[in-house]
Here is the input.
Amino acid sequence: MRNITISFFSLVLLLGVAAGTPQALAAAAAAKGAAAAPAKDTVAAPANDAAAAAPAPAKAANTFNRLMRPKSERNPPPPGDGIHDSENQGTHQLQPPKEAFANLATSNVGNYVNWVQSLKNKAVTPRYDRLDPNAEALILELDIVREVKGTMPDVVYPHDRHTEWLDCSNCHPDIFIPEKGKNVISMAQILMGQKCGVCHGKVAFPVSECRLCHSKPKTAAAKPK
Ligand code: HEC
Ligand code: HEC
Ligand code: HEC
Here is the structure.
């Protein structure tokens, strides 16, 4: 009789101590259910509860964030890309990006093509002669260094890698006055789609690639490894 009293007492004590944790509450609920249910269900009930408590496996990555697409879903064909009208017959005539990009150098961001490298490899050849058969590219070898306040490396704007694709009039004078230091540029403007952000993040590599623009270390100590 004495033994039974002690063990019952310690059980109450144990439950009291454990009651604070959610697992303990769930275990207590499961035990209660098991006790109330008919005998053949007593084994199954706690197992079912455990399965219900486990989180459902994720079906896919968060596709709201286009940067988090799994590799297989990158650059979908035009009818399924959420940009083109899938009911328009013309959309189905468009070449799927994966086919068009097959021979191009790859990158991990944007549309996953390294366009600068692809141009260097001659995998793409811009058509300067589209309107005038005698037109030639006017490639300007001029780097503009923009000193950045704070600890970020300075920005180097390379004319050559832009004028291999673009005409001077794509930037001058509407986006940038062609005179060093005449333009006020800030990261806030770029993120809002102005200045460099007119293209970067839309048709050129995205703003997440800090080091491609901020490429000139201020001191030897600040050099990227
Ligand atoms: C993608 C945009 C872009 C294109 C295309 C472009 N530039 Fe520029 N250019 C700039 C930026 C940015 C600056 C720097 C302005 C500043 O520092 O305030 C600049 C500065 C200049 C300057 C001033 C240099 C100095 O030291 O004062 C000249 C001259 C110039 N560009 C000529 C050209 C010519 C010629 C072309 C075509 C062959 C061209 N640019 C194409 C963006 C561009
Ligand atoms: C008119 C469109 C346009 C504007 C404006 C523009 N860029 Fe670009 N930029 C491009 C394109 C197109 C490329 C080549 C494609 C790519 O790399 O995604 C490029 C490439 C570059 C590269 C070469 C990256 C590499 O891999 O070598 C740098 C650096 C760069 N841009 C910096 C800037 C900076 C800094 C500004 C603002 C001062 C700017 N760009 C403004 C269109 C633009
Ligand atoms: C497309 C080119 C480009 C990319 C990509 C880029 N920046 Fe900038 N950033 C600039 C330019 C241009 C300036 C203005 C420099 C000046 O003062 O003339 C600037 C300025 C800044 C400044 C100084 C303060 C300000 O707002 O002007 C900071 C800090 C900065 N960038 C951080 C970053 C970080 C962090 C990233 C990556 C998440 C990044 N930048 C990506 C071009 C770029």
Observations:
- The longest helix spans residues 2-18.
- The longest strand covers residues 143-146.
- Confidence is low (pLDDT under 50) at residues 1-45.
